[in-house]
Design goal:
Radius of gyration: 28 Å
Largest sheet: 4 strands, mixed
Strand content: 15-25%
Distance between the termini: 80 Å
Helix content: 25-40%
Strand order of the largest sheet: 3-4-5-6
Number of domains: 1
Structural class: alpha+beta
Oligomer: single chain
C-alpha cells in the first residue's frame, strides 16, 4: 500500500505540469459534415429534335454498362420530358412482339417483393455483358429492328459507362465496341467514336 501511495504522489506533479503547459482545454470542434465519396454520374443518351444528347443522371448504385442500359430503358424522367427529350427505344413494359419467351407481367403491388419481381422481369428481358473490350446487349423483348438512332442511344450509353468502368480500373482509353442484338438474333455493332460529348 505504501508503494501505491508513493507512485500516486509522484504522478500528481507530472500531471500538474502537463495541465499547466498553457494549452487551453477545448470541447468537440465542429469542422463540417461527414466525409463523402464521389457521387457517380451516369450519362444516358436521349433524343432531342432528331439528334443524340448526353444527359447526366445520378444513379442509385455503381456505374457500369448494365446499370446504364437499364437506366436508359426506363425512359426520360419528367424533368427530361419537360425539356422535350425523348427516346426511340421501346420501354421494358412493352409486350414483346416475337420474343421466344413472353415478358412476365408484374402487378403494381407494394412491398419489396414487387421490386424484386420487376427487376427479375427486366433482367430476363435484357442481358448486358462486357467482355474482352466488347459490350454485348441482348434485347430479348424487342422483336422488331431498331432505328439507327435508337441503336445509337444504346451504343453511346453502354460505351460511355464502360469507358468510365475501364478508366476506374486503370485500363486504356481505346474506343469501346458495343453489339446490340434483338430477340430475332439481328445484331448491329458500333463504337463510341461518333457519340456526342454533351
Amino acid at each position: 500500500m505504501r508503494g501505491v501511495r508513493r507512485v500516486v504522489l509522484l504522478c500528481v506533479p507530472a500531471l500538474w505540469t502537463l495541465v499547466s503547459c498553457g494549452i487551453p482545454a477545448t470541447g468537440v470542434v465542429e469542422a463540417g459534415g461527414p466525409a463523402h465519396g464521389l457521387v457517380p454520374v451516369l450519362r444516358v443518351y436521349l433524343v432531342e429534335n432528331g439528334s443524340l444528347v448526353a444527359v447526366p443522371r445520378r444513379p442509385a448504385g455503381a456505374v457500369d454498362a448494365e446499370s446504364a442500359v437499364m437506366n436508359l430503358l426506363e425512359g426520360p424522367t419528367e424533368t427530361e420530358r419537360a425539356k422535350r427529350l425523348t427516346t426511340l427505344l421501346p420501354p421494358l413494359t412493352a409486350a414483346p412482339t416475337s420474343a421466344p419467351k413472353p415478358l412476365v407481367s408484374v402487378p403494381p403491388t407494394a412491398g419489396p417483393s414487387a421490386g424484386s419481381a420487376a427487376e427479375a422481369a427486366a433482367s430476363a428481358a435484357v442481358a448486358v455483358n462486357a467482355r474482352n473490350g466488347v459490350v454485348s446487349i441482348h434485347l430479348r423483348y424487342v422483336g422488331e429492328e431498331l432505328s439507327d438512332l435508337a441503336t445509337a442511344q444504346l451504343i453511346c450509353t453502354a460505351a460511355e459507362a464502360q469507358r468510365t468502368t475501364d478508366t476506374g480500373a486503370g485500363l486504356g482509353a481505346e474506343a469501346v465496341t458495343v453489339k446490340v442484338t434483338n430477340a430475332r438474333g439481328l445484331s448491329v455493332e458500333g463504337s463510341d467514336e461518333r457519340c456526342p460529348e454533351d
